[in-house]
Amino acid sequence: MDWAYISGFFDGEGGIAIEATKNSGVLILTVGITRKSKEVLEIIAGFLRTHGMSSRFSVSGEGISSLRIGGIKDIISFLSHLTPTVKARQAEASLDYLRGSITGNEMLSVFKKEYLRGRRRFAPLVRRKWNFGLTHEEANRLVKQERAAASAKARNCLTPSDLRAMFLELPLSFGIQDVAQALSVPRQRVSCIVKLMRCKGFAVGELRYHSHTRTLVCKRTT
User: N or C, which end of the chain has less CB nearby within 10 Å?
Assistant: First the structure.
């Protein structure tokens, strides 16, 4: 078993599936090899393990065996080792997308051309509009930002940018009551927010707790 054999096997029995979750600009790639006989796929899976790559082996109810590679690092490593002929352009476009050289739309365009040339069984995302104008890294970064914002909103939290803007409205020396009124958050959560503001550099200088009034006071420098 070697990479030349796997490359030929991939050309004949393998492919790259493309999926996309709803309201996400990230394209999800999965490399797969399907064959009725499972023995060869088991050998390939073992060969990949020796090269530090993870794969999933499964058998359908009809007895069709499949080997799937879904991890980004594993896909990049696998495709980088291949020297396919028929599916060379698809492998190259996938690597370019995952490495940030091209956008999702550009990769889909390559896959569509390969489908029209008979080098691919299915056209990519035929029932969806191509709205993937970012690279894989850019799209993932945007998704993380949106998730963080949604999570903060769900927890009734304030983002650092919110704190920075509202902090300017506070007096030079401010306490829990000042923060509660300025930021419109429950008093029981204010002390945590005040600490966050100080850690983030929004409140620099003195931080004291008045035990007789049970008030946390920050004094910002001018």
Answer: C
